[in-house]
Design goal:
This protein is mainly α. The protein is built from six helices and no strands.
Length: 172
């Protein structure tokens, strides 16, 4: 038999879609599930059926316009797979985990930026203490360079990490 390009059905004898196979019913030519749950992907419909129920999925798809159904099925498959992996939180658990990762990475980025500022200030203080040439930016005569030159040592001699409890060691 020759495989057709759309819907996962074979020409000649109609092969039931994954939904009709699981539900053990004859797959009609106008089956609402066939375009979205092809016979070669039975796990997609199995999880959706387990979480939402075939009747509810059928109702949802019938209420939507055809161009919206693909996105709806994709969302239902994602949510159903997330529910199977995490029955309590589902995709909310995945979203929460990703949000925690974002928060952690933003904290690490802020820490890295603070360390860069600390190193730049330390470097400019070191240059001003060793008498850089007149063309140096730290000897420009600006109020900040005069203030830095008047200080015997850097304002940031202590490690910035001590001021932030629970931040851990430097990332470098």
């Amino acid at each position: 038999m020759k495989e057709s390009s759309g819907g996962g059905r074979k020409q000649g004898t109609p092969s039931p879609c994954a939904a009709c196979k699981l539900l053990r019913r004859r797959c009609a030519q106008d089956c609402v599930f066939a375009p979205y749950f092809p016979a070669d992907e039975p796990h997609k419909f199995a999880n959706v059926h387990r979480v939402f129920g075939a009747s509810n999925v059928n109702k949802m798809l019938q209420e939507l316009q055809e161009h919206q159904r693909g996105d709806a099925v994709s969302s239902m498959v994602y949510e159903a797979n997330a529910r199977v992996r995490d029955p309590v939180y589902g995709c909310v658990g995945a979203i929460s985990s990703l949000q925690q990762q974002i928060d952690m990475l933003q904290s690490q980025l802020a820490q890295a930026k603070a360390e860069v500022v600390h190193l730049r200030v330390w470097q400019s203080a070191a240059l001003s203490n060793h008498g850089p040439g007149p063309a140096s930016p730290s000897n420009s005569g600006s109020p900040s360079s005069r203030f830095m030159a008047s200080q015997g040592k850097s304002m940031f001699d202590m490690d910035m990490m001590e001021d932030q409890p629970g931040m851990g060691d430097s990332i470098w």
